[in-house]
Amino acid sequence: MGAAIVDDVLAIAVLSVVVTMVQTGNIDPDLFEISFLILKILGLFVAVLVGSVLIIPRILHSEKLWKSRGSIEGITTAIFFGTAGIAAYIGLSPIIGAFAVGMAIASTKLIKQVGDYAEKLQYIFAPLFFAIIGSQVDLRGINLEVIVLAIILISIAISTKLIGCGIPAMMFLKNKSGAKIVGVGMISRGEVGLIVAGVGVTSGVLSSDIYTSIIIMVAFTTIITPIWLKKSYKSDSPLP
Question: Which of 90, 198, 205, 223 is 20 to 30 A away from residue 18, measured at CA?
Fold first, then answer.
């Protein structure tokens, strides 16, 4: 889970870098500019995260909020949108602000109440999210080039996670089977991958062919990961 969180943060950082480059028109920056921009984004993310962790629990734990039914849910929704707006204002992707708030709320005693509320919202926004993502995929544009690109992306997605996450996991866990499970568990590209792809195509960073190939890759890795992970748990020893 920790590796997955770091992976999402880095993906969001890369998203912010690319979107910033497109918005400023600087599509050919040097290595120093890219490094500085990444450090800036990560620094701002840390600042938003620390601020959220320090402030949000105090707001939600205020006894006054418990007197009115639905007040916690309303305050939480306002905080999510407000922090997302602040993140966008300072030059970050709005998802960074929402992500930081989610991590802050997870440390409060209201996590179950907010989790139940968020689960109900999924009935409305989850289908809407996938409908928007799906509507941006032009199935008529699927050709041999798109399929080949999707296969290449799938190969890269699987190999980089198995190697990039499996080897460090083996170094820390000292367990080959456990390291394999970590690597397999990281293969799936879920909602963050879809969000990154969606922002990329709407901002003009990705073409429709590349976007379609990415969606195919996300769908394939999302389907194959739980199947592969289940077989890995059955055939290999569990994590220590």
Answer: 223
